[in-house]
Amino acid sequence: MYDLLIKGGTVIDPSQSLNGPNDLAVQDGLIARIAPGIASEEATRVVDVRGKMVVPGLIDLHTHVYDGVNGNGVEADLGGVRSGVTTMVDAGSAGCDTFGGFPRHIIPDNATEIICFLHICRTGLATTPDIFSPSSIDLDKTIQVASENRHIIAGIKARMVSPALEIMGMEMPRLAKRAATEAGIKLMVHIGDTEKRYDPNVIRQLLPILEQGDIVTHLFTANPGGVLDGEGKVVPEAMEAKDRGVWLDTAHGRMNFSFDVGERVVDQGLVPHCISTDLTLPGRARTVHSMTEMMTRFLTMGFTLEQVITMSTLNPAMAVGVDDRLGTLAVGRQADISVLDMEEGDWVLYDVVGGTRRTDKAVVPVLTVKKGEVFEAGWGPRPWGWEPDTA
Ligand SMILES: [Zn+2]
Q: Residues spanned by CATH 2.30.40.10 within the chain?
C-alpha cells in the first residue's frame, strides 16, 4: 500500500519532460510511482486533483523568513507550504552574529524547508541600513559560521546598495566573494541600489567577480545598477556572466521589479533562470503577494507554462545545488509536490514602478505535499484570497 495517491491531475515535470494525465504515488516520504490509472485501493489516502496541475514542489529562491527576529520576516509556512511552496531560500536575513536563531528556532518550527544564504553583514538585515561601516563585516566569523553550517547554508549574500557601496566600494562584494570561496559555497548578489545614489556602472565591475554557480538576484530591477545601461541596452558583462554559468534570478520584492525592464532584458536575449518573490511581511501584503502570482506575472510576460514551472522548480534546485533531491518528481526523490490551479478571469497585475499588465489567467495554490505530508493552501494574501486585483 502507498501512503498517498495524488489522483487524476495533469503532471507537469520539466525535469522528466512529463506533461499529461498521470497519478502519483507516495510512500515513506518519497515519490514511489508515476503512472496513469493507479488504483485508489492501492493507497491509504487518496487526494482527487482532477482538473489541477501537479508539479514538483515549488522552490522560492529569494525570501525573508527570519520571523520574530527581523521585523519584516514572514512566517515560513505562511509563504511556504500554505502557499504552494515546499522550499524557501532565505536570502541573507541573518549574518554571522545573528544566524543562530535559524537552526534553533526557525527551521524546526516550520514544515517548509529553509535553505539560508548568510549575509556578509554581521547582523544581516536586522537593522537598516545593513552595512554602515567597514566593521559591519567580520570576514573570519562569516567564514566560520558558514563552514560550520554547510548543511543549511548554501551561500553568502551581498547587496549592491548605498551606503555600503559609498563606504566600501567594490571591497564589499569582493569580501563576500572571498567568504563564499573560503567556505566553499556560492555568492548571491542583490543588484539595484534601492537608495538610488551609487554609480549605475557598478554592475560592470561586479559581474566579472561572479563565477559559475553564483547567483544574481533582482534581474528586472529599475534601480541604478541593474543590467541595462543608460541607453537601455544589456551590458556585455551580463551576457558573459550568463555564458559562464551564473544563475539569473528575478526576485520581485517591494522595490526591484519592472515589467518594462524585464521585457527589454528578455528581448535582448538575457532570459532569467529563476522566478522568486523576495517575500517579506509588507511585500506579501502590498506588492509580491505570492509565489504563484509571480508565476502568473511571467505567464503574462510571454513565458510558457513549462518555462514558468522550470523556473520555479528545477532551475532554483540547480541554482542552490539541491537538484539531487528537489525540483523533480522522479521516482525515489523526496515527495515534495505542489498542486496548482489555473483560474480564468479578468485581472490586472502591478509591478513596483507603476507598470501594469492585464491577464485572463492566474495560477493559484491548491495543496502542497512536503516529504509526503499534505498541507492545504491557506487563505490568500488579499482580502478575497489568491486572485489578482480585478481589472
Ligand atoms: Zn531580499
A: 2-55+329-347+357-390
Q: How much distance in Å is there from the Cα of 192 to the middle of ligand 1? A: 11
Q: How far is the CA of 40 from the centre of ligand 1 (A)?
A: 43
- CA of residue 212 to ligand 1 center, whole Å: 21
How high is the pLDDT of residue 30? 98
Which residues make up the CATH 3.20.20.140 domain(s) of the chain?
57-320
Q: DSSP 3-state assignment of 361?
A: strand
What pLDDT sits at residue 212? 98
Ligand 1 centroid to Cα of residue 235, in Å, is: 23
d(Cα 351, Cα 255) in Å, to the nearest integer?
Answer: 9
Average pLDDT of the chain is 97
- Residue 379: C-alpha distances to residues 23, 293, 358, 386 (Å): 27, 14, 23, 7
Cell of 168: 566600501
Rounded to an integer, the average pLDDT of 167-196 is: 97
Q: How far is the CA of 155 from the centre of ligand 1 (A)?
A: 14
Residue type, 155: G
Measured in Å, residue 261 CA sits from the centre of ligand 1 at: 19
- Looking at the chain, the whole-number percentage of residues with pLDDT higher than 70 is 100
Instruction: Compute, in angstroms, the gap from residue 24 CA to the centroid of ligand 1.
Output: 34
pTM above 0.70, yes or no: yes
Task: Kindly state the average pLDDT of the residues 20-45.
Answer: 98
- The grid cell for 82 is 500554505
pLDDT (average), residues 237-255? 97
* 2-55+329-347+357-390: CATH architecture: Roll (2.30)
Sign of CA dihedral 382, 384, 385, 386: negative
Query: How close is the Cα of 63 to the center of ligand 1, in Å?
Result: 6
Q: pLDDT confidence of 272, banded at 50, 70, 90? A: very high
Cα–ligand 1 centroid distance for 267 (angstroms): 25
Q: Calculate how far, in angstroms, residue 183's C-alpha sits from the geometric centre of ligand 1.
A: 22
Quote the ligand 1 centre to 243 CA distance (angstroms). Answer: 25
Select from 3.90.79.10, 3.40.47.10, 3.20.20.140, 3.90.180.10 the CATH code of 57-320.
Answer: 3.20.20.140
* Ligand 1: centre distance to CA 91 (Å): 6
Q: Angle 283-285-291 (CA atoms, 0-180°, nearest 5)?
A: 65
